[in-house]
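User: Can you predict the 3D structure of Probable glycosyltransferase At5g03795? Sequence below.
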Amino acid sequence: MTITTKPSSPLCSLKGSLLTVAALTLLSLFYLSLDSLRTPPPPSLAASAAAESTIHVPQSSSEDYSDVYHSPDSFRLNYAEMERKFKVYIYPDGDPATFYQTPRKLTGKYASEGYFFQNIRESRFRTLDPEEAHLFFVPVSPHKMRGKGTLYEDMTVIVRDYVDGLIAKYPYWNRTLGADHFFVTCHDVGVRAFEGSPVMIKNTIRVVCSPSYNVSFVPHKDVALPQVLQPFALPAGGNDVENRTTLGFWAGHRNSKIRVILARVWENDTELDISNNRINRATGHLVYQKRFYRTKFCICPGGSQVNSARITDSIHYGCVPVILSDYYDLPFNDILDWRKFAVVLRERDVYNLKQILKNIPQSEFVSLHNNLVKVQKHFQWNSPPVKFDAFHMIMYELWLRHHVIKY
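Assistant: Sure. Here are the predicted structure tokens for Probable glycosyltransferase At5g03795:
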């Protein structure tokens, strides 16, 4: 019996050929992809790709973008964009001889306010054209009011009248209800003075030294200003762990509940150097500051407010700060990972303070100390301002908030 087969149609042959070609093509591409992963492109191709790229990413040393940042790459890219684009308009109203425009002084516990007032005028960020501004600076200084003996009640009136005048005279406030405006104050009296103007509190970005978020400070809107006591009495410390033989140190006034407890529990301890009063200058020249140099951990409890200049003193002198203050939105907290260079505790931990510090291995202390040296530049003011210093970090925080939000 003879079996005959029906010849396949041309259409079937064509489909089979196409499937074969497709399969071979996919297989070739697969092997080419594997080969490209194993073999880097020729230098000429790499150079061409780099030249054709439309995005220029500034490069910097690994020290600038180390692991003390939450997101080093984001910080690097956003900081570079800020330097290229950010513009701030300063309202020209107000007599500099009274409470406006210029700093009271660049020294003392509230020097941060004065430095910002000066730095913003020295920087590339200032624009004289309000139409190109991302943010608007309200240049009224409670620190200058305090220096002239202005009563708190009068401060409130001065601030309110000044802001109302800006709102009536210029169109910029009403475009966002003040969400693209900011003010700067370091003294807690200044914070309360601005609170007398409700329109300044609801939407405006507040750059303040007392950022306690259990009251009216809003972390994603407002900015924590580091309280820096400049000029520093002695040079910066660091890379000197072998000289730090004292476990912990604090000396100061008992002007808060946590400080009273700290002094009562630990002032007679043999391993913690705790004094319930500021060290008398009669005991020797710069004795207080020199204690920072030989201490591993410097205790930083809140005083009349959550903040303290002792934190930036500790950072400057290379002593790992121990934050002992609840509800404190630490400066640059959304940029820097404070737990990489500080010990952050709750106030209730004061009773176990010594054991907590003794339980920190020497290797961890060395890592904290080394990272502390890396962030010192962020807590230093300069005139004119210097890249990555306290002024630029505040400007970076403002840049992150310049996409306005109305409440």
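The radius of gyration is 29 Å. Residues 119 and 385 are 6 Å apart (CA to CA).
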